Amino acid sequence: MNLHLLDKIKQQMPSFSKGQKSIANYIIEEYDKAAFMTAAKLGQMVGVSESTVVRFATELGYDGYPQLQKAMQEMIRSKLTILQRMEVSNNRIGDDVLARVLEQDVEKIKTTLEETSRQDFNRAVELITHARCIYIFGVGSSEALAVFLRYYFSLVFDNVIHVITSSETAIFEQMLRIGSEDVLIGISFPRYSRRAVKAARFANDRGANVIAITDSMASPMARQAGCVLLARSDMVSFADSLVAPLSLINALIAAVGIQMKDQVNDTFTELERLWEEYKVYEKPESETW
């Protein structure tokens, strides 16, 4: 429904009241800004009441304004340039940057908890623990998430490959032997990388099980995946907010660790012995007195 939101508004335009037409025109012309406004703020911008905005949402077939707002956000999520996203983000933050950014991150984690499929999550854990080889990749800021996931999975499995995405040639070379017994975990958030989508499509064509960690079922990554784990992301100034995706990945690591309990225990027992033998970690000052 959100993919055709503007067409839907235009089709219903003749039936709208004067106030609703004002809302409709503002959304058509400034949807990148309207998508991040409250109903009250949108009403203020076009000179109508908050209740008029809510009624406008129901006229379009939504249960309320939050659904309309979500539809607008989904529609524009991958289309905004960095400068546009910065403008929207800066308008939303206000004066107390610390409080606002942390509050937004908390909200994204809550939304992630509500939207992520438990069935797909459990299926992902099952696929990972039984995979011959686990391929992991992320592009752009998502690369940091891929590195984090690879680090912990490498402590549990000896079959983890971090796919370096510096070029399309490198991607295909590293994934040359991927097959039906393998898993690809692809991490991609707006703006979606074509390299990420091509890598997922390649794995899919080879019969591998593709797990997408992304922000929406409308994501091009989701269309290539058998399991989709949704995590809300956003932009804070010029930086991507990946708190919720990281929290989801932490949950995935924990769930895999529980499934591989004996192997994890053996690994860390040996690691603790080595760390102590080779004095890897410095003890806190209080322990050296």
UniProtKB/TrEMBL annotation:
The keyword rRNA-binding does not apply. Gene3D superfamilies: Glucose-6-phosphate isomerase like protein, domain 1, Winged helix-like DNA-binding domain superfamily/Winged helix DNA-binding domain. Residues 124-262 form the SIS domain. One of its GO terms (molecular function) is DNA binding. One of its GO terms (biological process) is carbohydrate derivative metabolic process. Keywords: DNA-binding, Kinase, Transcription, Transcription regulation, Transferase. Residues 3-79 form the HTH rpiR-type domain. PANTHER family: GLUCOKINASE, RPIR-FAMILY TRANSCRIPTIONAL REGULATOR. This is N-acetylmannosamine kinase.
